[in-house]
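pipeline/complex-builder :: batch 7 item 3
reading input block
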Amino acid sequence: MGEWEMGKTDGWIWKETKDGIYTTKSAYSILQSGSSESSAPNDRVKMTATVWDIPAPQKAKVTAWRALRDRLLTCANLRKRNVMIDEVEMNCNACFESVEDLNHTLLRCPKASAIWDGISRWIGFQTARSQAVQDHYFAFSHLGKGKKSK
Ligand SMILES: [Zn+2]
């Protein structure tokens, strides 16, 4: 049933670097080139890569990147990963009206919607809100195009 090789340890090997050690630089490079073997379409990979150019704290950028790839730990995603969640607990903890999935949590929930309304008033740009996080990101990231300041 398999043998351990002398000097080998159990662990993960990052196939994108020569030494097998993960670096954020190598991951960024993959995202920029769109050459990842991930199942995401190439244009989506390119779109999510623009997150790293936003002048925001790294923690916020990582969260945005995960959101754009639907990798946040919402109840819906935990269920997909076979984490046992009671049907009742699947509902959003802010409004208790809908299943907590990515688009509900960040856009459709009345609590999130109120925040986006405030942001829209603040930047002076009112528009119909996208129902998908990726569309919303695309729309908001193009608001400042052609202006001197974003
Ligand atoms: Zn909600």
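note: DSSP finds seven helices and no strands in the chain.
queue -> next item
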